[in-house]
Amino acid sequence: MRSIDDARSLGYRYHGNGPHTEIPAPRTIKLSRRFYEQFGDETSNELVDVLNNMDTTYRAELRDFIELSFEKFEARIERRIAQQGADLRTEFRTDLSALRVEMRELKADLVKWMFLFWTGTALANVLLR
Protein backbone atom coordinates (compact mmCIF):
# COMPACT_ATOMS: atom_id res chain seq x y z
CA MET A 1 0.00 0.00 0.00
CA ARG A 2 1.38 3.39 -0.97
CA SER A 3 1.09 6.40 1.22
CA ILE A 4 1.99 10.03 0.63
CA ASP A 5 3.40 10.13 4.14
CA ASP A 6 5.38 6.93 3.62
CA ALA A 7 7.20 6.62 0.26
CA ARG A 8 9.00 3.38 1.10
CA SER A 9 6.58 1.13 -0.76
CA LEU A 10 7.64 -0.42 -4.05
CA GLY A 11 5.69 -0.48 -7.28
CA TYR A 12 6.32 -4.14 -8.07
CA ARG A 13 6.68 -7.34 -6.14
CA TYR A 14 8.97 -9.99 -7.57
CA HIS A 15 7.75 -13.60 -7.73
CA GLY A 16 9.75 -16.32 -9.47
CA ASN A 17 12.98 -16.55 -11.39
CA GLY A 18 12.07 -15.56 -14.97
CA PRO A 19 12.55 -12.12 -16.52
CA HIS A 20 8.81 -11.48 -16.91
CA THR A 21 7.51 -12.67 -13.58
CA GLU A 22 6.96 -9.30 -11.95
CA ILE A 23 3.41 -8.85 -10.75
CA PRO A 24 2.18 -5.30 -10.33
CA ALA A 25 1.41 -4.55 -6.71
CA PRO A 26 -1.78 -2.62 -6.15
CA ARG A 27 -1.05 0.99 -5.41
CA THR A 28 -3.54 2.77 -3.25
CA ILE A 29 -2.82 6.28 -2.11
CA LYS A 30 -3.49 6.86 1.55
CA LEU A 31 -3.69 10.35 2.88
CA SER A 32 -2.94 11.36 6.42
CA ARG A 33 -5.72 11.68 8.99
CA ARG A 34 -4.97 15.43 9.19
CA PHE A 35 -5.72 15.79 5.47
CA TYR A 36 -9.04 14.01 5.95
CA GLU A 37 -9.88 16.25 8.91
CA GLN A 38 -8.94 19.40 6.97
CA PHE A 39 -10.86 18.65 3.74
CA GLY A 40 -13.42 16.06 4.77
CA ASP A 41 -13.84 12.40 3.91
CA GLU A 42 -15.75 12.90 0.65
CA THR A 43 -13.27 15.36 -0.86
CA SER A 44 -10.28 13.36 0.32
CA ASN A 45 -11.72 10.13 -1.09
CA GLU A 46 -12.40 11.84 -4.43
CA LEU A 47 -8.79 13.07 -4.50
CA VAL A 48 -7.53 9.56 -3.72
CA ASP A 49 -9.70 8.14 -6.54
CA VAL A 50 -8.45 10.76 -9.01
CA LEU A 51 -4.81 10.15 -8.06
CA ASN A 52 -5.25 6.36 -8.30
CA ASN A 53 -6.89 6.71 -11.73
CA MET A 54 -4.07 9.01 -12.88
CA ASP A 55 -1.51 6.50 -11.63
CA THR A 56 -3.24 3.65 -13.47
CA THR A 57 -3.55 5.71 -16.66
CA TYR A 58 0.09 6.83 -16.60
CA ARG A 59 1.24 3.30 -15.94
CA ALA A 60 -0.77 1.97 -18.88
CA GLU A 61 0.58 4.73 -21.13
CA LEU A 62 4.12 4.05 -19.95
CA ARG A 63 3.70 0.31 -20.54
CA ASP A 64 2.38 0.99 -24.06
CA PHE A 65 5.26 3.37 -24.76
CA ILE A 66 7.83 0.86 -23.54
CA GLU A 67 6.29 -1.95 -25.59
CA LEU A 68 6.28 0.24 -28.71
CA SER A 69 9.88 1.28 -28.09
CA PHE A 70 10.89 -2.34 -27.59
CA GLU A 71 9.15 -3.38 -30.82
CA LYS A 72 11.00 -0.64 -32.73
CA PHE A 73 14.29 -1.68 -31.13
CA GLU A 74 13.64 -5.33 -31.94
CA ALA A 75 12.83 -4.49 -35.58
CA ARG A 76 16.02 -2.42 -35.83
CA ILE A 77 18.10 -5.25 -34.38
CA GLU A 78 16.52 -7.76 -36.77
CA ARG A 79 17.34 -5.48 -39.73
CA ARG A 80 20.94 -5.14 -38.55
CA ILE A 81 21.29 -8.90 -38.10
CA ALA A 82 19.87 -9.50 -41.58
CA GLN A 83 22.25 -6.92 -43.05
CA GLN A 84 25.22 -8.42 -41.21
CA GLY A 85 24.25 -11.88 -42.46
CA ALA A 86 24.07 -10.61 -46.05
CA ASP A 87 27.42 -8.85 -45.65
CA LEU A 88 29.01 -12.00 -44.23
CA ARG A 89 27.65 -14.14 -47.06
CA THR A 90 29.02 -11.68 -49.64
CA GLU A 91 32.41 -11.57 -47.93
CA PHE A 92 32.47 -15.37 -47.67
CA ARG A 93 31.72 -15.74 -51.38
CA THR A 94 34.45 -13.25 -52.27
CA ASP A 95 36.99 -14.99 -50.05
CA LEU A 96 35.95 -18.41 -51.37
CA SER A 97 36.43 -17.22 -54.96
CA ALA A 98 39.89 -15.88 -54.10
CA LEU A 99 40.75 -19.18 -52.41
CA ARG A 100 39.68 -21.14 -55.48
CA VAL A 101 41.86 -18.98 -57.72
CA GLU A 102 44.81 -19.47 -55.38
CA MET A 103 44.24 -23.24 -55.31
CA ARG A 104 44.17 -23.35 -59.14
CA GLU A 105 47.47 -21.47 -59.27
CA LEU A 106 48.96 -23.82 -56.69
CA LYS A 107 47.75 -26.85 -58.64
CA ALA A 108 49.32 -25.49 -61.85
CA ASP A 109 52.63 -24.92 -60.05
CA LEU A 110 52.48 -28.40 -58.57
CA VAL A 111 51.85 -30.01 -61.96
CA LYS A 112 54.73 -27.98 -63.44
CA TRP A 113 57.17 -29.14 -60.75
CA MET A 114 55.94 -32.73 -60.97
CA PHE A 115 56.54 -32.69 -64.74
CA LEU A 116 60.06 -31.30 -64.25
CA PHE A 117 60.82 -33.96 -61.61
CA TRP A 118 59.47 -36.80 -63.78
CA THR A 119 61.34 -35.64 -66.88
CA GLY A 120 64.53 -35.23 -64.88
CA THR A 121 64.16 -38.71 -63.42
CA ALA A 122 63.33 -40.23 -66.82
CA LEU A 123 66.32 -38.46 -68.42
CA ALA A 124 68.63 -39.69 -65.66
CA ASN A 125 67.37 -43.29 -66.13
CA VAL A 126 67.93 -43.08 -69.90
CA LEU A 127 71.44 -41.67 -69.51
CA LEU A 128 72.45 -44.21 -66.90
CA ARG A 129 71.50 -47.28 -69.03
Please give the structural blueprint:
Elements: E1 2-3, E2 12-14, E3 22-24, E4 29-30, H1 33-39, H2 41-128
Parallel strand pairs: 1-4
Antiparallel strand pairs: 2-3
Number of helices: 2
Task: Please give the alpha-carbon distance between the first and last residues.
Answer: 110 Å
Gyration radius from CA atoms, angstroms: 39 Å
Q: Trace the largest sheet across and list its strands.
A: 1-4
Helix coverage percent: over 70%
Count of DSSP E strands?
Answer: 4
The SSE order reads EEEEHH
Largest sheet: 2 strands, parallel
Give the DSSP E fraction (strand runs of 2 or more residues): 5-15%
Which segments are poorly predicted (pLDDT under 50) over 5 or more consecutive residues?
A: 1-16
Class derived from helix and strand content: mainly alpha
